[in-house]
Amino acid sequence: MASAPTVLVTGFEPFDGDEENPSALVARALGGRRIAGAEVACRILPVSLDCLDAALDAALGALPVPPRAVLALGLAAGEAVIRLERVALNVADFRIPDNVGALARNLPLEPGGPDARLSRLPLEAILAALLAGGIPARLSETAGLYLCNAAMYRLLGRLPAGLPCGFVHLPPLPGQVARRIARAGGRVSGRDPGLASMPLDLQVRAIEVAVEATLAEAGRDG
User: What's the pTM value of the predicted model, to 2 decimals?
Assistant: First the structure.
């Protein structure tokens, strides 16, 4: 019996001293589900530039059939909405060390590779579907210069040109923000962008919608 079409959804492990990462929780929540006729496979990636390539190869190699689409997820601290990334840049320039202590500075992700790689997700269709479903979302120009950008850039370089692939940043969870406020003794400004959050169930629904929209567009393209 032929295997069902597969969509790979990746998340990242916690980093920067935090206890959880919504991208990992969302990926795990979706793992094993059927969305628009495709089975979701999930993989949690390390927050380590040195280990990232092997983890991506393992994630793709573990699939029973080539994926119909790949959606990589990550956390954007201070983000209030679902953020759909347009571009990955060929550079790693970290503000904080990764989980093994590496602090990349202006390092090419792929020497000799293109300066940037564009998302191959149907971003406008995803955005429209999210907003129609009452889920706040926006387009973003770049995925940053940390591991999220590196994962997007390297995934796009590994996969066939016609295969939908891209990156979605998620807001912090309410519990993460509550812990941040507690560490500050409750004394934070109401204008602090770091107070933004989104509940886990809404984030899970957002990525369901993104997968549905991606597969619908892929079906229209043949």
Answer: 0.95
